[in-house]
Amino acid sequence: MPFVRRWKAAPFELNLVLRFLCLFFFSALLLVLPVTSLAQSQTICGVVQDQSGAVVAKAHIRLSSPNGALNANADDTGRFCFPDLQPGTFEILTQAEGFNASRQAAILHPGEQFRTTISLRVSAKGQEVTVVEGTADVASLNVAQTQIGTGLINNLPSESVNAALSSILTLATPGVAADSNGVFHPLGEHAETSFTVDGQPIADQQSRIFSNQISANTIQEMRTLQGAPPAEFGDKTSLIVEATTRSGLNTGKPNGSVSLGYGSFATPTASVALAAGARKWGNFLALDGVNSQRFLDTPEFAPLHANGNAENLFDRIDWNRSDITSIHLNLSAARSWFQVPNTYDQNAAGQDQRQHMTSFNLGLGFSHVLNPALLVTGNAWVRQDRVSYLPSANLFADQPATLSQSRRLTSTGFRADFSYSHGKHTAKGGVQFQVTPLSEAFSVGLTDPAFNSPCADGNGTPVADLSLISPEQCASAGFEVNSSFQPALLPYDLTRGGVRFDFRGTTRIYEGSAYAQDSITLGQFNINAGVRYDNYRGLSHAFGIQPRAGLNYQVRSTGTIFHLSYARVFLTPYNENLVLSSSTGTGGLAGGSDQVQPLTPARRNQFNVGLEQQFRRRFGIQAEYFWKFTNGAYDFNTVLNTPLNFPIQFRKAKIDGALVRATLNNFHGISAFVVMGHSRSRLFSPEVGGINFGTPYAPVARPDHDQAFQQTTNLQYQFPARELRGLWLGLTWRFDSGLVVVSVPDYATALTLSGDEQHAIGLYCGNAFATVAQPIQTCNSPYRGATLIHIVADGTYNPDTNPSRMRPRNLLDFALGSDSVWKKDEYSISGKLTLVNAMNKVALYNFLSSFSGTHFVPPRTIEGQIAFHF
């Protein structure tokens, strides 16, 4: 197997840097030349709510700046707005009867409509409030978007132990299908999500099997964009998450909270948040820790060998050097350690595989108002993930293979943006450059003689005869040829005299980008036009010029907004395990290719149409339909139900679908939202890269992130009685119609599975159900199937038009809390009780998927939490 060596091209590096410096200054020149003393009015708007996410009506807001102060009152839905402002730094003081006052800073950029969510803490007297979470204003963006405030972040029950952020995004964002271990599938893609945290872009994977995810305790609010992206966003854009972290600006003397919790599966949690600051400076510090005996989602409903823990540290330092210049520094570090969950068979063999991850991030942000019409912002960062995967001490205790890995991913880069507003135009342009060194070591050897046996018995079950090493021996031994035998894996079969496959490789990825865009308002129309340039230099080289365009039309009589948009998108390969995947060629390691074929950048054409309608501030609906056509589409290949995932690339993909979000605001103490999605995803072979020990891919197939329908309904009720001290109740209903199952095309294939695997899917024949010790090997009854998988009728399977799927599932989650269980002066105690999967529904996310593995949804999980605020 050829090795991929570190790519060296020093002259090109210098040339690339010079090229992008020229682009930077050219963009600045274009934006600065038209600038005069012209000014454009800006706006600060927001919603006031309590800690549960309930809106606070009629709150008083005082907006202060060096030029004076303005006063306003929130309306009945807790909303307020200050129009016709000049750019600069402001302080927002919010007061309401029965609540503690709140102070926060706001930096207003030229042409910006600054939006914020203000959270007030309930005082001892209480306050009658109602709950609200809604969509953001899309009148000028051409992109479906959702605003997620602290109410949802704090109160949505998380279905993930160490990936609460992923759980919140899955439940609150339309068009997102749920998967195991913090993975979610936005708009029919595997994991194509980009995060922007305080302006720092992060395009690498953030689920808990790839990296240590940022704690939800550090987030003030999030905005998600789903749709054809504006030119300022590039690469992985099926879902864009813009997150703003909590700050200590204007918080006065030190204040914060200490929270302790305990839940099912021996899961203690602890968190500390501390903020302090004034108008010029601020500091926010957060520490979080969790330990659980069900740290990852498990291949059996009952967790086996599934203990793990994680710790996170985050510190944000703000300095307002002047009214027009601000700087912030984000520091974070995290570690996690967890056991890889076992099946019953693996547990009996004594398998003890583990994974350890450490991460750190250093991010510097800068903002400066050059004049009332022009703003410059910038970010610089260095971020690193280190992952170690450890096999069992006894290699043959690992079944069906022993695996080990050590990899490191480091991202260093900077970005700069200019925003300019004049008349009907709001323009923006910028550049970005980053370098990502990758280092990988990987080892694998087969330890189960039946896993890749060349022969099978009359029932199609592989035989574990070690003397059989080729299909030619099967007939003379009285067996049939095993249709699943992969000759390329025979050299790595340790039971048949093979040796472990060992790989080491490094490379360095260079990426540079530049963009320019303009938003033009013409009466009832809003036009967005832009262009983006990306240059990718790594194991493969390519560049992309990407036009983006969108059109909005608002019907003034009804307030209805229609929009359509187009985006050309340049996508780059996933960085995680990219070096090995770029060395295995067509079909991956199991394909036996001896030719290096690196994964290359992909190109996509995306089209979106949609509308938004608001009904008297009480109810709003947002709907979107999308089409995505990708040449060189990416996915991940999971190795044997482990957290080890390797990127693969298909010839092309066609994806279309719909998303809907409806929101009810402030109706007699009740608020609600419903998010829905449908995606139809098709991948076209051949595929390149990865390991692929699973089911071979069909020429045209539905990946397991294709799902006909999913929805989340969330209801929250704020009790009106003051003596109940801010008591609130929440209900979340999640329905998933079921992801595609590629490993069980028919019942005959299910009969060849092990007893453990048959038991996992609830395979039955007549009145007999498979057990771990007694699999079903033959069945003559017409009453047969599986309780957790819909296996298509014999002879009807088609990987494109009629694949097998997971059974539909309904999950109910409940939350009950109070934000003022006890109150005295500036001190208070809050409490929360959550119940996840209240009906203890037994269901699978996926099964023997080469994309995801096998994982059950969490069983009934109860967690209590109490917090002390000071």
Mean pLDDT: 85
| Beta content | over 45%
Strand segment tally: 50
State Rg.
28 Å
Low-confidence stretches: 1-14, 16-41, 122-140
Main sheet attributes: strand count, strand direction, barrel closure: 22 strands, antiparallel, barrel
- Which descriptor suits the 3D outline? globular
Query: What is the number of helices?
Result: 7
Task: Describe the secondary-structure layout.
Blueprint lengths: L9 H23 L9 E9 L3 E2 L4 E6 L2 E6 L5 E7 L2 E8 L6 E7 L4 E8 L9 E2 L12 E5 L1 H6 L8 H9 L3 E3 L5 E3 L6 E5 L2 E3 L16 E8 L12 E7 L6 E12 L3 E11 L3 E12 L15 E13 L4 E15 L4 H6 L4 E18 L2 E17 L10 E22 L2 E22 L8 E2 L23 E2 L19 E22 L2 E13 L3 E15 L4 E12 L6 H4 L20 E14 L3 E13 L2 E5 L6 E23 L2 E19 L11 E2 L5 E12 L8 E10 L3 E2 L5 H5 L3 H7 L1 E3 L2 E2 L14 E3 L2 E2 L13 E3 L2 E16 L2 E10 L7 E6 L3 E4 L4 E9 L1
Parallel strand pairs: 1-8, 13-16
Antiparallel strand pairs: 1-5, 2-9, 3-4, 3-6, 6-7, 10-15, 11-12, 13-14, 15-16, 17-18, 17-50, 18-19, 19-20, 20-21, 21-22, 22-23, 23-24, 24-25, 25-28, 26-27, 28-29, 29-30, 30-31, 31-32, 32-33, 33-35, 34-35, 35-36, 36-37, 36-38, 38-39, 39-46, 40-45, 41-42, 41-43, 44-45, 46-47, 47-50, 48-49
